[in-house]
Amino acid sequence: MESEAVMCRFHAVYHKINQALDNIPFDKLGVSIEVKEQVELMRMQLKRAKRRTDTQDMELAMDMIVIFSKKDERNADIAILERLANKLELHTIAELKAEKTAIAKLVKQRGGYNETMHQIVDLLGKFKQIAGIDETVSLDGPISTRTAQTCQSPLVPHEFVCPITLEIMTDPVIVATGQTYERDSIRKWLNSNHRTCPKTGQTLEHLSLAPNFALRNLILQWCEKNNLELPKKDNYASSVNYSAEIMEEMSSLVLNLSSSQPNVRRDAIVKIRMLSKENPENRIFIANDGGIPRLVQLLSYPDSNIQEHTVTALLNLSIDETNKRLIAREGAIPAIIEILQNGTDEARENSAAALFSLSMLDENKVLVGNFNGIPPLVALLKNGTMRGKKDAATALFNLSLNQANKSRAIKAGIIPPLLHLLDDKNLGMIDEALSILLLLASHPEGQNEIGRLSFIETLVEIIRNGTPKNKECAVSVLLELGLNNSSLILAALQFGVYEPLREISISGTNRAQRKANSLLQHMSKCEHIP
Predict the structure, then answer these.
(1) Beta-bridge partners for 174
(2) What's the CATH class of domain 158-225?
(3) Buried-exposed string 47-63: b where 16+ CB fall within 10 A, e elsewhere
(4) Whereabouts are the ARM repeats (predicted)?
């Protein structure tokens, strides 16, 4: 906790040093080239001194907010789940099983479920889905009855068992690495945006699935010999030609995007929107067939309905990391921003979600800022629908991880609508607003805009009466502001922050306890408290 306060003070100092170095008139001083090089080296080292630990905390917190607060199931959330699973190191079958056991113990220790436990169990279920495990999470029983039965039987040859489900395979297929899996299981894995072989961890060169007829025949012979019957697969024969048929359909649809017949073109956009939502294979095939440049051209088509379907299709395609770069390279960002300003409500919402998805890449954060994409996002945050406000907040948080974009957001007037979100409890966006304000509070312009007595009073009220997550975010913002301006700490004490702060330092979330203790230590050093 002491080290965290020192780190925060250090970064406040390094910002000031960096600003001072920027303003040195080298030409007028007549300094040598060697001195200039030394100063430039110092500036580079200062720029590298990023607050990665705290930024990762904020990114993790924002991802949790999005997952728990969103009611719609758009594909942007799949990307967030994938990132969240990686951050929490809960993306392999073994890790998920260990976590399930740990949660069961915690429930037993606390004497049952509460709302937080239900949220954790729900999130674990989502992680299992993106890992390709199709099951309902139950803390009271085994992971899967069929799996347990299969694992307990020593008679089943291990090569007949799917590495994902641990069940005997009925429709074995071979992936690019040569490993064999149950078709449904590996397809779920691929549909969850994975591009690696679950067993070996190798990157798959392609996502085609080849039927393993030889192994299936061996399994059938073994079952017949041991008087076992495999579950029926109604779609086994037709599934063999699935990939070829889908690829042919998508190639035709991509060509139809350039059709001179409006109805043909419109139907193609709608179908590509749906196909791009279904699974990662489709997203790759559409991109490889040249679908992205054609879709980007249609963003400027003078029909609001076509614009809406097109920007949503690009949102779905942008889940793929490679497609993010391709979409930006084709010049989509200015056109998406135009729809964000002038499109239908749904088009504006999905444009904001698309900018969030694209801005997962740092170079795209810069592009969105340079193309003036932040003011219309601020406008959506202020005047949009409920879902629009949430999409705008998520995008603005992500974009504000870039220092230049913080300044742009402040100049675009982001702070008044954020303060409104704090006052309007019915919107349920206090955590989102505080997370963005925390980023802006590290910027000098943000400190000047935010550091007013009325805001400090609002923070103290949230620290006193908010949810555990609300309190964590509010304490973090107050600490950031207080380290740069001790008079704000004094104001917070006058508004009665001390007692609730002490309570949080003992019983708050782990991060809230760290922040509260750092704030209490800072208060003591400033001689505001004994």
Answers:
(1) 180, 210
(2) alpha beta
(3) eeeeeeebeebbbebbb
(4) 290-332, 331-373, 372-414
Structure tokens at 426: 């019915």
pLDDT at 474: 95
CA-to-CA separations, 513 to 173, 503, 520, 523, in angstroms, rounded: 50, 9, 10, 15
**Band of the pLDDT at 239, cuts 50, 70, 90?**
very low
Both tokens of 467, joined, read 């949810």
- 3-class SS of residue 116: helix
End-to-end CA distance of the chain: give it in Å, rounded. 18
In the three-class reduction of DSSP (H, G, I as helix; E, B as strand; rest coil), residue 117 is classed as helix
Q: What is the pLDDT, as a whole number, of residue 359? A: 94
Stated pTM of the model: 0.67
Q: Which residues, 6+ apart, have CB-to-CB distance to 464 below 8 Å? A: 496, 497, 500
Token pair recorded at residue 390: 């949430």
CA 148 to chain centre: 34
Is pLDDT above 60 for 152?
no
Q: How many Cβ atoms sit within 10 Å of the Cβ of residue 428? A: 12
What's residue 345's pLDDT?
Answer: 94
Q: What is the pLDDT of residue 65?
A: 66
Joined tokens for residue 157: 């040859």
Using a pLDDT cut of 70, give the percent of the chain over it.
Answer: 75
Query: Which tokens hold the place of 235?
Result: 């779609």
In 3-state terms, what secondary structure has residue 451?
A: coil
* pLDDT tens per residue across span 90-138: 766 677 777 877 777 777 776 666 666 667 777 877 777 666 555 544 4
Per DSSP (E only), the strands in 184-297 are: 210-211
What is the pLDDT, as a whole number, of residue 62?
A: 67
CB 230 within 8 A of CB 219: yes
Residues 6+ apart with CB under 8 A from 157: 222
What distance in Å separates the CA atoms of residue 437 and residue 418, rounded to the nearest whole number?
Answer: 8
Residue 394 corresponds to which tokens in the numbers above? Answer: 């998520």
Closest CA to 358 of 399, 392, 404, 389: 399
Mean pLDDT score, 406-424:
95
Domain locations in the chain as residue ranges = 1-50, 55-131, 158-225
CA dist., res. 236 & res. 245, Å (int): 15
CB 4 within 8 A of CB 514: yes
Q: Would you state the structure tokens that stand for residue 486, as one six-digit string?
A: 């001790």
Q: Do 501 and 468 meet the contact criterion of CB atoms below 8 Å apart? A: no
DSSP state, residue 75: T
Between these two residues, 64 and 246, which has the higher pLDDT value? Answer: 246
CA distances from 38 to 42, 45, 62, 346, 363 (A): 6, 11, 39, 53, 28
